[in-house]
Specification:
This protein is globular. A hairpin with a 4-residue loop joins strand 15 and strand 16. It starts with 8 loop residues before the first strand and ends with a strand. Helix 2 (77-84) packs across helix 3 (86-93) and helix 10 (319-337) runs antiparallel to helix 11 (348-377). It folds into 4 domains: 3-74, no CATH class; 99-167, 2-Layer Sandwich (Dna Ligase, domain 1), CATH 3.30.1490; 184-278, 2-Layer Sandwich (D-amino Acid Aminotransferase, Chain A, domain 1); 306-412, no CATH class. The chain is α+β, with helices and mostly antiparallel strands. It has helices at 59-68, 77-84, 86-93, 109-113, 141-153, 217-231, 266-278, 285-288, 306-314, 319-337, 348-377, 390-393, 395-400; strands spanning 9-13, 16-20, 39-40, 49-52, 100-103, 120-124, 137-138, 162-166, 172-174, 184-185, 187-193, 196-202, 236-242, 248-255, 403-405, 410-412.
Length: 413
């Protein structure tokens, strides 16, 4: 990929580089050179690169092309996906956003009815198609069947996985001026950098003007601060809205590099963000973790209950099946075990989290005994070494069946 073909400008602002392309969208484009001291990048730079090139079709290709030129992105691909695809961010934020299931393609009606009742809200894994009501709010089975056919032909939706969401009515601002769109709701966009709010404003910049009163801001910030902490990404845009019943919920998360500022004041956004970028506090992952470390981006088993995994464990017939289930349950236990530390010891929430973790640990221990027995039978169970534990003893056996140690997780190879 030739980076010059996807950008109009490349410059540094202090300790950060910006690769920029004008999109023709006034709610996204920003002339950095009018407001900051910018120095053109002619050949290379040591500064990490922030992208401002609009919607990014192939993030991995851009990251690879920059790395070949001796450059590095500020936001790595895994971090980008964690906040730009609902399948990655939903498991982390599911407590504060409508119930959602992700499908490789829209399933038949019978499958939908297992988990949902109409109306439902449907979107692509990454985006909607310009907020079209007929493609988003599906009132009944007839509309759903029509959407299934339309989805296959739609240039924006056809290449995406489908996200089916519980439909929760929102407080509306202008329900009538744009009848072909989803209702203009009381929705706001918050930009965050390293866990701190940089700027916020109305999500909708069409129709009736509205703003967030000061007396509502603390409640909303509690929600967006929580979401930013849970996401653990450096530069997200978090969209929240008030429901018709008065509750604040998370609507969407995106990579702020791609996000329009809509009703957010762009000067406030970029002044605060550029200043924060000069002294980032995060430690780069590659400097903090050992080589081959894997960071789990979401719940390893978001769609499986403990009881379902017990039934699956009881039906195992082959060693490969055993290893697959063990790896999944192992990862699940260590994922939820961390939840215990979110609560004060002795509280009801703490006791509940402990009970859940203990139940998964019991299943993991049962599977572990079976895995060890298989490893011993195959002569692949290593002797215990100083300063190492069971993971090291199982290393050769797990590798044979397709897994490696990701420094805390069993990772498929």
């Amino acid at each position: 990929m030739d980076i010059r073909k996807i950008s109009d400008d490349f410059f540094t602002i202090g300790n950060i580089a910006v690769l920029l392309r004008n999109t023709g969208n006034d709610a996204y484009d920003f002339n950095f050179r009018d407001h900051f001291e910018c120095r053109s990048v002619v050949f290379e730079t040591d500064a990490p690169v922030l992208l401002h090139i609009g919607a990014i079709e192939d993030y991995a290709a851009i990251e690879s092309a920059l790395e070949k030129s001796g450059l590095r992105l500020f936001v790595h691909e895994a971090e980008h996906l964690r906040c730009s695809t609902i399948e990655k961010w939903y498991p982390v934020l599911k407590d504060k956003t409508p119930f959602t299931k992700i499908y490789d393609e829209l399933p038949d009606v019978e499958e939908i009815r297992k988990d949902f009742s109409f109306p439902v809200f449907i979107k692509g894994n990454r985006q909607t198609n310009r907020h079209k009501r007929a493609q988003s709010i599906i009132e009944n089975e007839e509309q759903y069947l029509s959407l299934r056919e339309e989805w296959k032909r739609d240039a924006v939706l056809s290449w995406q996985k489908a996200a089916v969401r519980e439909y929760i009515p929102l407080k509306t601002i202008d329900p009538v001026s744009f009848p072909d769109m989803v209702p203009i709701s009381y929705e706001f966009r918050f930009f965050y950098f390293e866990g701190k709010c940089m700027a916020y404003g109305p999500y909708w910049n069409i129709g009736k003007r509205y703003a967030l009163p000061e007396n509502e801001l603390p409640e909303v910030l509690r929600l967006t601060d929580w979401a930013a902490e849970k996401l653990g990404v450096s530069f997200p845009a978090i969209d929240v809205a008030k429901t018709a019943s008065g509750e604040w919920i998370i609507i969407e998360v995106n990579d702020a590099q791609e996000s329009g500022f809509v009703g957010v004041n762009p000067l406030i956004l970029w002044n605060n963000t550029i200043e924060a970028l000069q002294n980032p506090t995060r430690i780069p992952v590659e400097d903090f973790f050992e080589e081959d470390t894997v960071i789990m981006g979401g719940d390893p088993l978001p769609d499986k209950s403990l009881e379902e995994m017990r039934l699956i464990a009881e039906s195992i017939k082959t060693t490969q099946e055993l290893v697959d289930v063990y790896a999944a349950v192992y990862n699940k236990f260590w994922w939820i075990e961390d939840d215990v530390y979110d609560f004060e010891e002795g509280t009801e929430e703490y006791k509940k989290a402990c009970n859940v973790a203990d139940a998964w640990e019991t299943l993991m221990d049962d599977l572990e005994e079976r895995v060890i027995a298989c490893a011993v039978n195959e002569g692949l169970f290593a002797e215990r070494q100083n300063n190492s534990g069971l993971v090291k003893q199982l290393e050769a056996f797990m590798l044979k069946y397709g897994y490696r140690d990701g420094r805390g997780w069993w990772v498929g190879i």
